[in-house]
Amino acid sequence: MKSLADIKPLLDDLTNRAVERIRDYIVAQIKAIRSPSINAQVIQQQALIKYKELYAFLAKHQSELAQQIGQAYIYTMRWYYLNHFTRYRVALEKIKVHAMDKYDVLGEDPTARRAGSLLGQARNTPAAYDAFSLGRRRDALKSSSTNALTAYLAEEEKSAHYLETPFRSFNLALIDNACFEYTFISSFFAPSQNYHAISRTFSTIFEPTMAAGQALTKALVATTTDTLGILICVRLNQHFAFELQRRKVPTVENYINATNMLLWPRYQQVLDMHCTSLQKVTSALPGRPTTGAALLSSSSASLTSTAPTPLTQKFANLLQGILALSSEAGDDEPVSVSVGRLRSEYEAYLTKMSKGISDTRKKERFLCNNYSLVCTILADVEGRLGEEVRVHFEKMRDVYDK
């Protein structure tokens, strides 16, 4: 035992020297993260996580010093992510985004003078987009689709995009970085920090960056009437939630929920606008045979025509897009209720429209043709809700198909 007592001062001296060298090394790596154009993940992987036992040694022998270094790391990474994502957000905001407004709602006059087709730009020409058709926009939900736009490409991008493009790019980058950071701190700071402490560390680092993400989402959807774009963002957000579950990163759940709280209410508001606009169109119809009335303020489309109305085409395209994006929707979503209301308003419009045709056979042919067009456009929709809606319109078509 005497020999142990003799070497204890030597062991203490070696421990103190090791603590000093470990402190200097980790502090140098943390400082390096603040260097211009540095990739923090390179330092985390090559200079920190490979030597995580050093921090564990520090936490064991100098817990207060380890805590101070941990705080230095937290504040450095908090600054790092906020700085980079703020610059990235500024770059994404330079992308031209189709600005859909009250003129892009069902029942509005498509020839009305518009204030601007792109955010921040004036427009006097027809819109260069289709507000009611999903088309290839669904590709944004495919896992094999392109990665997030880089800041450089975003700044140099000349073509216009729909709102889901900047939303997807920012949040894809945020989720990837958040997953990496959570994995890093879970490994590097363990076992000196338990799960709750690691969660607090992560929140302290990422709270400002997530606030920037919330601000971007709010700016994108606050005034738009892009129904399909908002719903695509909802589905993207759900995909991000699944990815976080797969990677076992629970600390971003509040951000996902907060994003949903921005998207779903706006989706409901826009659907309400569609329904209200349809009500106005319906109430303006004469409801009795007349040859002077026109469809959607267009003198070229007489109420005596049995051809499908332009509004039917838009309605069916919009409905197809909503249903295609909701093939796996849960019962707790507001999509089913909003689709039901939209369908009812459209049918009320079509019924009153048909009252302007005096000939019974022409009236039935008019209704059959309109419902047939809806059925044709909805032919390939999948999912329980899509099938229910398609079957409903097939029955409506068959009633008048004589």
Total number of beta strands: 2
Q: Measure the end-to-end span.
A: 107 Å
Mean pLDDT: 87
Rg over C-alpha atoms, rounded to the nearest angstrom: 29 Å
General shape? elongated
Helix content: 55-70%
How many separate helices? Answer: 13
Strand percentage, roughly? under 5%
Question: Can you characterise this structure?
Answer:
This protein has three domains: 90 residues, no CATH class; 154 residues, no CATH class; 94 residues, no CATH class. With 402 residues, it is mainly α. It is elongated and about 115 Å long. A two-stranded antiparallel sheet has the order 1-2. Pfam families: Vps52_C, Vps52_CC.
Name a few traits of the molecule:
402 residues; 3 domains; two-stranded antiparallel sheet; 65% helix; transport; Vps52_C; Vps52_CC; protein transport
Please sum up the structure shown.
The chain is an all-alpha fold and 402 residues long. The chain contains 13 helices and 2 strands, in the order αααααααααββαααα.
Describe the protein's topology.
Blueprint: H1 2-33, H2 40-48, H3 52-61, H4 63-92, H5 151-156, H6 164-188, H7 195-221, H8 227-246, H9 253-284, E1 294-295, E2 298-302, H10 310-324, H11 335-354, H12 360-377, H13 384-400
Antiparallel strand pairs: 1-2
Helix pairs in contact: 1-2, 1-3, 1-4, 3-4, 4-6, 4-7, 6-7, 6-8, 7-9, 8-9, 9-11, 10-12, 12-13
Domain Vps52 C-terminal: 76-397
Subcellular location: Golgi apparatus, trans-Golgi network
Family: Belongs to the VPS52 family.
